Structures are given as structure tokens and as C-alpha cells.
Amino acid sequence: MSTTVTALIAPSAGAGFERSTIERRDVGEHDVAIDIKFAGICHSDIHQAREEWGTAIFPMVPGHEIAGIVTEVGSAVTKHKVGDRVGIGCMVNSCGECENCLAGEEQFCLKGNVQTYNAREYSGEETYGGYSKSIVARENFVLSIPEGIELDEAAPLLCAGITTYSPLKHWGAGPGKKVAIVGMGGLGHMAVKIAHALGAEVTVLSQSLSKEEDGKKFGADHYYATADGSAFKALRGTFDLIINTVSADIPVDAYLGTLKLNGSLVFVGAPEKPQSFASFSLIGARRSLAGSNIGGIRETQEMLDFCAEHHIGAEIETLDASDPSAIDKAYDRVVKSDVRYRFVIDAATI
Asked: What highest taxon heads this organism's lineage (predicted)?
């Protein structure tokens, strides 16, 4: 059995969005049904809907920044109840048995976690994301959204928030640490807020100074424009940690040069093309080049609780999706970096 749900669908790679319907499974004993209130637009939605990351599954319903209200729970559900404020992020299942899952790192499931959309359940059933009226998911992959964060501002935390929180925590951002954030977009503005709340000294490295006022408001102590290259010379040997949030090519060696001894440059943005660097940029100061991928369910809940405690939400622009072409226009604006700082779809308009 299943339930028919209204959704915004990308029928093929690069095609305009259309309003249509999809089927959601009935609530099983370990499932939670959620009335979606808001769904954030992530740059990865654009990459996948435009098939820029390899072969995709169409028709596609993107969206892995989902916030809503529980409307039904299965007979064996213990973590959530009807009326709860909840969210779903980038994954809706994992094997639950491998060493990474058992360690709370489901994003690195050795069997491969099941992504919220553009993926298939282990049964072969296609997954559809948050650009829709409702969703059914396993209770273990449903997060509690604490009071103190509005649902619309909470939605982007389910990807942008955890994508930046996880590496900041893993690499020890905190008092006495100098942290640089490359880019001030959807990911970058969250990284600035979280790094500041963790107690680090925060610097934004952006192509221009156009967002400097915002950066300082979000908690940045310093803000540098990198377009002319002079900032790299001025900042040589400065940072303990750099979080690169952009999805464009960067001069990796120049950024590595701004790290201290034992410093790390961590990619969370995903450029389409391979990046290159000189090994001596690492060898010269025992630096590290690394990457990070969202976070496990336990850490995602920790992030949400942290953001509620520190009154951190995403800066958003809410979209009326009654005309599906609004999503196409929003995608084009994201590509042009013309949003401050995250689009969120009002699911009531779908």
C-alpha cells in the first residue's frame, strides 16, 4: 500500500520543475510520517537535478534539508510522537551493522547509506526528497528539532549545519584556535556562526568584501578578499584549520600556505573538477589536506541541540513554489551566488 503525495519533480536532467505526484509508503512499525513544512535548497540539489555528478535517477524529487511535524508513528516507534517538530537530512537508512554504523558514523556506512533522494532503498525502491508535501522515514533517521529554532531556519541545518559542524568539531575548533572559512554562501555562513559559537577566532576568506558586513555580524573576527592574491601573502602561516565550503576550483597551494604547523585544509564543498597541489605545500609544515561528509545521526542531533542553545539558525529567503518555475529561478540564483544565504521552500505552496 502507499499514499499519493504532491511533489515538485525534475522530469529529466536540467528540465524545469513540474508539479506532479509521487507515492509514499504506508507507515511501518518503525516508521514516522512527517508533514513537511519547509525544505531547503542545497547546491547539491542543483548538481544532481542537472546530472552534474554522474548518472542520476529521474524523475527526481530533490531535497535533503527537511523540517516538519510528525503526523503518524509506527507501532514500535519510541523516539518520536505525533506533533513533534522533526527533521530529515541527507540520508534515510544505513545497514546499521558495519563498524562505521555502530560507531554512529552512518554517513560512512560500508554498505553505502541510502540517500534521501536520487537513490534507492536496499529493496530497490527509489527515494524522493523534501520538495513534497510529506515523507515517511525510519525513526532512527528522523531528528528532533528543539524549541528555540524556527522550522524554516532549522531546515538548512540538516545539511549545511551538520556539514560544517562536523569538521569544526572533528578538527578541534574552539578557544585558542584560528579558523578560516573559505566562502560565505549557504555553507560558509553556517560555518562562521558555528565556529564563532565554538569559541574560535574566525576569519572569512572570500573573493570580495561584498559580504563583509554580514560576515562580521555572523561572528567573523576578520574578513579578507582573496581575488588579487595579496591576502595569501599577508596570512601566511596563520591558521590552525581552514574549512573550504565552495564548489569551485581554488588555488590549493595558496590556501595551504596560510596554515600553521600541523594545520589542516578540509574540503566540504565539492568542485566538479579534480583539484591539484604540490606535495611540498604539505611537507613543509606537516600540513594535512582532508575532506568531510555531513555527520552521523548522533552528531546531527548534537548539532541541532548546539544551535538551539546558541540561537543559531540559517539566514533564509523563503520561496513560494505555487509556480514551479520559482525553483528553476532559485537554482540559477544559487549558481550565481545571488542568495543570502539559503533558499527554503514553503511546502504549503507545493
From this structure: Bacteria
Domain 2-158+315-349 has CATH 3.90.1150.10: no
Q: Rounded to the nearest 5°, which phi and psi values hold at 306?
A: -65, -45
Q: Could you tell me which CATH class the domain 161-291 is placed in?
A: alpha beta
pLDDT at 32: 98
Residue-range domain boundaries for the chain: 2-158+315-349, 161-291
Q: What is the mean pLDDT of residues 336-343?
A: 94
Q: Label residues 212-232 b or e (16+ Cβ within 10 Å = b).
A: bebbeebbbbbbbbbeeeebb
How do residues 7-58 score in pLDDT, each as one tens digit?
Answer: 999 999 999 999 999 999 999 999 999 999 999 999 999 999 999 989 999 9
Q: Rg of the chain over CA atoms, in angstroms?
A: 20
